[in-house]
Specification:
By secondary structure, this protein is an all-alpha fold. It is built from 14 helices and no strands.
Length: about 325
């Protein structure tokens, strides 16, 4: 679908959901917040689609003319496309989404499963000529015996374009070069297919207006996953080859800020539920954001960062419990 058509769809969804306020006079703010969250989510889906299209073009350009300039452009476009994905991923929790995430953004990955390493020059799919490099084959190989044995997704591409040299992709008589080039192209095609499905998953089922309880649960689920990611900032960082793991955390914290503050302003509803707890949530979000922006090493902030995000998760769970207790009474 063309960009302008998708932008019109964003506006239509917002207007449609906001108009439902008339049908639910007791919950007008929730409907408006839901429409704003949906609009934000669709705009992030549009951006992710555009950034991946740019990445595809960069990969084609690099494979056509592998040199330091096309490699740098490709690396930058990979970062932009992955950043855009994270903004969508943070709030996508539909039942069918996890299977796609395991194909789109699995990490950490085992480089030796993909390609030759200095100590293991015959390792990896690239070296194993018994494994055909086709989309069907690499899907069969993906996480075959272990989750780290990834042959699909963003981080396979990340490894190939950040950890391999330009010379590794220059046409030569070495069969491994040909297979490596094929692997990069095939993984990109597979990722395009998976993203086409993933980037069309609505924020809320059937685009319906959710309850406040559902909106808080969605946010808490994203925060819980983010806590797991923060625990691996040093040991098995997300986007370790591109050295963007800390930036990944900040991107997702920014989505939390957009949900709690502007434009969605969920925080105004949290205050009505429990003003003290809402104050704690707001303070924690701002503190972890400042920490990630601080001029300090990952090692210096890792423990404090994960503790803050864990605390934020507990705070959001307390809101979920409070609503469920009120309902039960």
């Amino acid at each position: 679908m063309a960009y302008r058509q998708l932008k019109k769809l964003v506006l239509l969804v917002i207007v449609s959901l906001a108009s439902s306020c008339a049908d639910e006079p007791d919950k007008p703010d929730i409907a408006i917040m839901a429409s704003l969250a949906t609009g934000l989510h669709i705009e992030n889906q549009i951006r992710a689609t555009e950034k991946f299209s740019t990445l595809e073009n960069s990969i084609n350009e690099f494979l056509s003319t592998p040199n330091p300039q096309t490699l740098i452009a490709l690396q930058n476009d990979w970062i932009n496309a992955h950043d855009a994905l994270l903004k969508v991923k943070f709030l996508t929790h539909a039942p069918n989404s996890q299977r796609l995430v395991e194909q789109i953004d699995p990490w950490p990955i085992a480089p030796g499963f993909l390609d030759a390493l200095p100590l293991y020059p015959e390792s990896g799919i690239v070296s194993d000529i018994s494994v055909p490099i086709t989309e069907e084959s690499i899907r069969e190989q993906h996480q075959f015996t272990d989750p780290s044995e990834a042959s699909l997704g963003f981080h396979v591409i990340e490894y190939l374009v950040f950890s391999r040299s330009t010379e590794d992709f220059m046409t030569s008589n070495d069969p491994r070069v040909k297979r490596r080039r094929q692997l990069l192209a095939t993984v990109t095609d597979s990722l395009a297919s998976d993203l086409e499905a993933y980037l069309n998953i609505p924020l809320f089922a059937d685009d319906s207006v959710p309850s406040l309880h559902q909106m808080i649960i969605f946010l808490e689920q994203g925060i819980s996953q983010l806590h797991g990611e923060s625990l691996q900032l040093i040991v098995d960082p997300h986007s370790g080859d591109s050295n963007k793991s800390r930036e990944n955390l900040q991107i997702q914290i920014d989505i939390i800020k957009q949900m709690i503050f502007e434009p969605v302003n969920l925080g105004s509803q949290l205050v009505h539920l429990d003003a003290v707890l809402a104050r704690d949530v707001i303070h924690t979000v701002r503190e972890v954001s400042s920490l990630l922006d601080a001029n300090a090493t990952d090692e210096d902030i890792a423990q404090r960062c994960s503790s803050l995000i864990e605390g934020l998760d507990h705070q959001m769970r307390s809101f979920v419990s409070a609503i469920e207790t009120t309902r039960a009474n």
